Amino acid sequence: MSETGATTGAATAAMTADAIVVGSGVIGSAVALELARGGRSVLVIDKAAGPGHGSTSASSAVIRFMYSTFEGVATSWESKFCWEQWADHLGVARLPEPERPALARFHRTGMLHLDVPAVPRERSMDLLRAAGVPFEDLTPDELTARFPHLDGGAYWPNKPIADDAFWEETSRRLGAVYTPDAGYMDDPRLAADNLAVAARLHGARTEYRAQVVAAERRGTVWHLDLADGRRAEAPVVVNAAGPWSGAFNALAGVGAEFTVGVRPLRQEVHQVTQPAGYGSDAEPGPGIFDIDLGTYMRPGPQQAWVVGGTEPACDPMEWLSDPDAVDQHVTTARYEAQVTRAARRLPDLRVPNRPSGVVGVYDVADDWTPIYDRTDADGFYVAIGTSGNQFKNAPLAGCFLAAIVEACENGVDHDAVPVTYVGIHTGLKIDLGAFSRKREVNAASTRTVLG
Ligand SMILES: Cc1cc2nc3c(=O)[nH]c(=O)nc-3n(C[C@H](O)[C@H](O)[C@H](O)COP(=O)(O)OP(=O)(O)OC[C@H]3O[C@@H](n4cnc5c(N)ncnc54)[C@H](O)[C@@H]3O)c2cc1C
């Protein structure tokens, strides 16, 4: 049953809107909210049963501020204020209590970015300074004095855990850049749901269990066919289809001009218990971004410790041709590889025999930087290539797409003179040309989930 109450069947009239957003993950839901806020009638279509059931549901939802470009850093810093003031960002703070939805919550834990050659320290600190992100520059002595339960050894380059070299001792030591304002959102799927609720408060309609199987532009209107025979029409379509984004572009005949491609990549994130001594129940230790050992980790509620990977070149990458064909079961091999890397850094971490965690799929762009842009097909926009690192930037991704749609639909040549977005919390000016589909591939990218 659709939430709009629309009837189904091939004979019924097409659903119409000013803009159709395909995908109701955290990105599509944010785009829908901002388009609706801007006064457009919006229709969101998703093949899943509700918002955030795609890759968003598996997200570690880490909120951190280190990227390889100024625009990446500025976007994450501006977005942090949206997460912190989530009810205000959504526009639900003044709703009477019974009408206010349960909200996802931001937890401030801090993040340690351990040194690694792929992320030049001076450049990283320059970018943080330029965006006004508070940080501390910790020497190796300061790092281990402050976090004595953390092994401060430098082990780069990454090695397979089955290789004896992985266990070799080292006399080289790491420093870190510590950003105390980092943290995580405690429920990524709920965050997408919150955005969808907020979009509906602005009049957006949402259709779930509705798969788009064809897309064609006739005249100035995009015509979408759904698997159940229904149709939808709008002059503006936004591809926010997550790991299915490449397939949806192909379906619409879009993408020939892109210099940056996207590909789905299978990922696992594992859950263990917070290591004793590294922080306390009341105040868990900060998250750790550790490309030196090929892992990232963060605390979670109820003493959880979430462990993901940073694509160590020595471990196989699981590229997919079809995100729907992904094996949804956590594997012992991947679990052991990731959690052992984490335990090398935090020797008190206990590694249970039985793997526990989630499987998800990244929509990886060639340079691990998202594509927020128009396309050469008029009226067709993309919010794709989120590369395992854009949950945190979703509030701004919505604002970016709304700004780009508004400009392009009013005749602005965004390719020639890219739109600038000015953050309402930070005043930072963000050149949206940095997320162009026709950009030069970002050479500073770590080509990992860091971006
Ligand atoms: C394991 C994992 C860990 C992550 N950790 C972090 C993190 O710590 N911090 C961070 O910032 N980011 C993280 N990310 C990245 C972040 O979660 C994603 O960038 C973000 O969730 C992508 O959202 P989305 O809306 O683009 O995609 P999705 O959530 O995948 O939404 C796309 C939607 O499109 C729908 N769809 C697709 N094709 C069609 C069609 N033809 N018709 C109808 N509907 C369609 C799908 O059903 C789906 O619901 C992580 C991602 C994963 C997988």
Account of the 3D structure:
It is a single chain. Helices cover 23% and strands 24% of the residues. β23 (420-422) and β24 form a beta hairpin. Strands 6, 7, 8, 15, 16, 17, 18, 19 and 20 form a nine-stranded mixed β-sheet that branches. With 451 residues, it is of the alpha+beta class. 54% of the residues are buried. Bound molecules: flavin-adenine dinucleotide (FAD). The site of flavin-adenine dinucleotide has 40 residues, from α1, β15 and β20.
Describe the protein's topology.
Elements: E1 15-16, E2 19-22, H1 26-37, E3 42-45, E4 62-63, H2 70-84, H3 86-90, E5 106-108, E6 111-114, H4 121-131, E7 136-138, H5 140-146, E8 176-179, E9 183-185, H6 188-201, E10 205-207, E11 212-218, E12 221-226, E13 231-234, E14 236-239, H7 245-252, E15 262-273, E16 287-290, E17 295-299, E18 304-309, E19 318-319, H8 332-345, E20 357-365, E21 371-374, E22 380-384, H9 394-409, E23 420-422, E24 429-431
Parallel strand pairs: 1-13, 2-3, 2-14, 3-10, 6-16, 14-22
Antiparallel strand pairs: 4-9, 5-9, 6-8, 7-8, 11-12, 12-13, 15-18, 15-19, 15-20, 16-17, 17-18, 21-22, 23-24
Helix pairs in contact: 1-6, 1-9, 2-4
The structure holds flavin-adenine dinucleotide (FAD).
